[in-house]
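Task card 7
Instruction: Convert sequence to structure tokens.
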Amino acid sequence: TTMDFAGQKLAETLAMFIVSLFSVIGFIYGYLQQDFRGMMSLFGGGVLLAFVVGVPDWPVYNKHPVKFLPPKE
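Output:
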């Protein structure tokens, strides 16, 4: 199965939310702890999580499959 259009939108929305959330959390952590490596680790973890959530073709991304018209004879 392949990802449908609604699934593409959902995957993109989730990936952007996850990366944004981990960016903010990483920045706050890095600022408060003065730890650049920790900040980048949190950000990298968010990118990896977004990759795992968005790249594989999970079944949740194919709930609205496209119905094609039958071929003309």
